[in-house]
Design goal:
The complex is a heterotrimer of chains A (about 325), B (about 290) and C (about 325). Chain A is of the alpha/beta class. Chain A is built from eleven helices and twelve strands. In chain A, the strands form two sheets. Chain A has an eight-stranded mixed beta sheet with strand order 6-7-8-3-9-10-12-11, sandwiched between helices. In chain A, strands 2-1-4-5 form a four-stranded antiparallel beta sheet. The longest helix of chain A has 18 residues. Chain A is globular, with a radius of gyration of 21 Å. The mean pLDDT of chain A is about 85. By secondary structure, chain B is an all-alpha fold. Chain B has a domain of about 180 residues: MetI-like fold. Chain B is built from ten helices and no strands. With about 325 residues, chain C is mainly alpha-helical. Helix content of chain C is about 80%, strand content about 0%. The two termini of chain C are about 15 Å apart. Classes of the chains: A alpha/beta (about 325), B mainly alpha (about 290), C mainly alpha (about 325). Chains B and C meet through α5, α8 and α10 of B and α1, α6, α7, α8 and α10 of C.
Chain lengths: ~325, ~290, ~325
């Protein structure tokens, strides 16, 4: 039965991901992810490379590479369409309008033989937000202005190779935000940018999301960036969600040993007696070579026989964690 | 630290790497076809069912039979004998032409790589112009000057394939010259030519073999075209191109006759092309331009 | 627009320079021939006086450099001189024949493009399935067959056995368009289909590369289906390498046309070239080859110009 409370909750619910797994014919890459996004939520998906965060994002848009498939469910929007089971035609209607994505590589994300303004105008005309060509071009200039490109009218006529990385990424953002999507997915949008440009980009993303009342799924490995822009965070390792919760709670009081290790490794002031920075022992295994049971157990100091079976994501008062021996206090 | 790494792992895991390595079907097929032609040529020196140039007016245009495996032509000559003897011309012209091409092209390429910027650029410009000049046209031109014939053909084709060798060798030389162990050798005072000989050539050998195979295919094609036009090996020596031309004159009487020389030419060209492709895949699987 | 004009002008200068160099090489090559055109024309028993007079007529008594300059100068005016053998003006002969060859090459190229593009794209899209491998094999095979062999095979099937199409000949389209089309079908198909085999492999390769590009993924993320994303964003980027190949193939196409003209007994430049070669009519040979070289160089110039239009990245480079 659907209660009135959960009905209201449903209306505000933008995305409900349940048991999502991503696999290739030979390997399991992402395993049973659960999370929910309400309207206006800003959730970060963090972890090191190889943890499956990009694949999670790509699955939502149906843009997985050849041979890779997603299973489970990802129910989206008011129409409650399951993105993972939707047809290409249904997905094409949503992409660029209800769901938008900003990718990591600004250098290659845009067509080199088409002026940038046309590429922005295109997304408006595909979804018939603006049908008239001239009006679309004008709106494109306005959108480029919104992402603070200097001299937007000239920028619109420019080609991709004439723009810097930061400028290209802003164009990609303009395209993503053009139709006011309910969900914006960003896959490491600032990683390839200079540090000085990063802050500006984050500001634009945050601003755009607030203005449109969109939900944000922000993927990154950079803890500073994610704490800047997100309210909640999901920590991924080995294709699994190992911890989630409000950012303050998770960062100040991590419960999963991996999260703790991650935070410690990012703390440049925490130098030990040898003058070395803290690290997590061992290294991230290649895909398909994670241990059975708890994926982190071969690098965890708290591991024991209980960890031979896989822990499920269990809720606690400030979030949830998937660990048999979660950290109860703020110590190793 | 980017998301690109796991994605490529994913792609590899999904088995999306294109092409096959090592002993690919391409390589095998190519090698077999080439071996076939080589075999035919070799056998023809030892034995042919009939004398390939013996005219027998009473046996004109007979179809394939136990006596004449591929039938006879308009002058009563046994087609099978003519074809396998024709293989000799094909192989021979190919070897000489590729030899000429390599002898001209390789030193030119090394020289171009060793000379300064200006010299190198000028040479390569000329090479580029020559690269666009088809072997057949050059051969026709040479025929005008020196008369048609096997020698002219081989020379012309050789000159036509030389630029490709020059280009390859220059690129390979430049690349090897900038590697560290060569720089070390130069610092140690070794002479440039010694370096070229000892370090460069072994490394570009594989690419040279591939190029030789491709050049051979070009040579076979050019020679066939020339013979067809009457400018290649003069009669009575059988040559596939001319056998084809002769067969065409009686096309309406005997449609099957043209098939044999056509198939022979196709087999040879296909064989060398596939061999080249297969070797290229084997030696350098990253070279993926036309697949 | 200024960049376009300056770029084209500099390319034209290079084009002219290359033509000059090519003409020098050609002239030198043919001038090396031992013997004397006047002697060849008049025969062994010619008197010295007659020889001298003929040489003056031909202009072969002048120093080589002068001969070259005179010839090349006339060439630029469109005058090719008169044949040493027949005394007929060379220019008009070439013009007549060139029409035939040009028609053959143009139509052949058109057929090649029309066949290769869908074939290549299909091969790319289906490259992991059996059909894709089959297509790849067929094109590989097609590339190995010289066009004149394909021509003979086609004649064998369509003219000899089925009697659908004639086995050769040429009728100007103005005279009888029906006959023109029937006679030109097999030659154009032979040239075009074999060229299509090669071209489609490049189309396939370029399509595969484009499909893997990030901007295709962005296009889909905007809401375009794969097909429309390819049409709007992919085609232009596929066209670039394809135009390259076409430019490189022009010489091969011309040579193929020369042989095909022989197969189908068409009155084109090929036939004229071969005749003049066997007659040792050197001035004629010179003229024809010069025209062929210029044609190739001009086509390369045009493809370069097309590049500048298609690929905006070339515009800022020097």
């Amino acid at each position: 039965m659907v209660s009135p409370e959960s009905q209201t909750a449903s209306v505000n619910e933008v995305l409900r991901v349940e048991g999502m797994s991503v696999a290739s014919p030979r390997l399991r890459l992402v395993h049973e992810i659960f999370f929910t996004l309400q309207r206006g939520d800003r959730v970060g998906l963090i972890g090191e490379s190889g943890c499956g965060k990009s694949l999670t994002a790509l699955s939502l848009l149906g843009l997985l590479p050849e041979g890779v498939r997603a299973s489970g469910s990802a129910v989206f929007g008011e129409s409650k369409l399951d993105l993972l089971g939707a047809s290409e035609k249904q997905l094409a209607q949503l992409r660029g309008r209800e769901i938008a994505m900003v990718f990591q590589e600004p250098m290659s994300a845009l067509n080199p033989t088409m002026p940038v303004g046309k590429q922005v105008a295109e997304v408006l005309r595909i979804h018939r937000t603006v049908t008239n060509r001239k009006a679309a071009d004008a709106e494109a200039v306005r959108l480029l202005d919104q992402v603070r490109l200097p001299d937007p009218a000239r920028a619109a006529r420019a080609y991709v190779h004439q723009l810097s990385g930061g400028q290209r990424q802003r164009v990609v953002l303009a395209i993503a935000m053009a139709n006011r999507p309910s969900l914006l997915v960003c896959d490491e949008p600032t990683t390839a940018l200079d540090v000085t440009v990063q802050a500006q980009m984050l500001e634009l993303i945050a601003g755009g999301v607030t203005e449109n009342d969109s939900s944000l799924l922000f993927i990154t490995h950079d803890l500073a960036v994610v704490s800047n822009i997100c309210q909640r965070v999901i920590v991924m390792y080995g294709g699994r969600a190992v911890e989630s919760g409000d950012i303050e709670a998770v960062f100040r009081r991590p419960r999963h040993p991996y999260t703790h290790g991650l935070l410690a490794a990012s703390d440049l002031s925490a130098v030990d007696e040898h003058g070395g920075l803290p690290t997590i022992p061992g290294s991230v295994p290649a895909a398909g070579q994670f241990p059975e049971g708890c994926v982190f157990r071969n690098r965890c100091q708290r591991a024991d026989d209980a960890c031979l079976s896989e822990p499920r994501l269990t809720a606690h008062e400030a979030g949830s964690v998937a660990c048999w021996h979660p950290l109860l206090e703020n110590k190793a | 630290m980017s998301a690109a790494a796991p994605i490529s792992t994913v792609r590899a895991a999904a088995g999306t790497r294109s092409g096959r390595r090592r002993l690919s079907p391409t390589l095998w097929t190519g090698a077999t076809l080439v071996a076939l032609v080589l075999l035919a040529a070799t056998i023809s020196y030892v034995w042919t069912p009939y004398d390939p140039v013996a005219i027998d007016a009473s046996s004109r245009l007979l179809g394939p039979s136990a006596a004449h495996w591929l039938g006879t032509d308009a002058l009563g000559r046994d087609v099978f004998s003519r074809i396998i003897v024709g293989a000799r011309t094909t192989m021979f012209v190919g070897v000489i032409a590729v030899g000429v091409g390599a002898s001209l092209g390789i030193p030119l390429g090394v020289f171009a790589a060793m000379s300064g910027r200006f010299g190198s650029e000028t040479i390569m410009r000329v090479v580029d112009i020559m690269l666009a000049f088809p072997a057949l046209l050059l051969a026709i031109l040479f025929s005008a000057v020196w008369g048609a014939g096997t020698l002219t053909a081989m020379l012309a084709i050789g000159i036509a394939v030389a630029p490709a060798f020059a280009r390859l060798v220059r690129a390979g030389t430049l690349q090897v010259m900038s590697t560290e162990y060569v720089l070390a050798a130069r610092v140690a005072g070794k002479r440039e030519l010694t370096i070229a000989g000892r370090h460069v050539l072994p490394n570009i050998t594989t690419m040279l073999i591939v190029q030789a195979s491709v050049a051979y295919a070009t040579a076979v094609l050019a020679e066939a075209g020339l013979s067809y036009l009457g400018l290649g090996t003069p009669p009575p020596t059988p040559s596939w191109g001319r056998i084809l031309q002769e067969a065409q004159t009686v096309l309406f009487s005997d449609p099957l006759l043209s098939l044999w020389p056509a198939a022979a030419i196709a087999v040879a060209v296909l064989g060398f092309n596939l061999l080249g492709d297969g070797l290229r895949d084997r030696f350098d699987p990253q070279l993926d331009d036309r697949r | 627009m200024l960049w376009l004009i300056t770029r084209l002008l500099s390319r034209m200068a290079i084009l002219f320079g290359t033509i000059v160099v090519a003409s020098i090489i050609l002239f030198t090559l043919l001038a090396v021939l031992p013997g004397n055109p006047a002697q060849v024309a008049l025969g062994v028993n010619a008197s010295p006086a007659a020889l001298k007079q003929t040489m003056a007529e031909f202009g072969t008594d002048r120093p080589l450099v002068i001969q070259y300059l005179s010839w090349f100068g006339n060439f630029l005016h469109g005058s090719f001189g008169r044949s040493y053998l027949t005394h007929a003006a060379i220019g008009p002969q070439i013009a007549d024949r060139a029409q035939v060859t040009a028609t053959l090459v143009l139509l052949g190229t058109a057929v090649a493009i029309v066949v290769a593009v869908p074939l290549g794209v299909a091969a790319a899209v289906m490259h992991r399935k059996k059909v894709g491998t089959l297509l790849s094999g067929i094109t590989q095979f097609g590339m190995a067959i010289p066009s004149f062999i394909a021509a003979i095979l086609l004649i064998d099937i369509f003219a000899v056995r089925l009697h659908w199409l004639p086995s050769g000949g040429w009728t100007p389209p103005g005279t009888d368009i029906g006959m023109f089309l029937r006679q030109i079908s097999l030659p154009v198909l032979s040239l075009g289909l074999i060229e299509a085999a090669l071209l489609s492999r490049y189309v396939r390769s370029a399509t595969l590369n484009v499909l893997r590009e990030d901007y295709m993924r962005t296009a889909r993320a905007k809401g375009l289906t794969l097909g429309r994303a390819f049409l709007r964003h992919g085609v232009r980027n596929v066209a670039i390498p394809v135009v390259t190949v076409l430019g490189l193939e022009v010489a091969a196409l011309l040579v193929g046309a020369i042989i095909i003209e022989s197969v189908f007994v068409m009155p084109g430049l090929g036939g004229l070239l071969l005749d003049s070669v066997s007659n040792r009519d050197l001035l004629l040979v010179q003229g024809i080859v010069m025209i062929l070289l210029v044609a190739v160089l001009v086509v390369n110039f045009i493809t370069d110009a097309v590049y500048l239009l298609i690929d905006p990245r070339l515009r800022s480079r020097t």
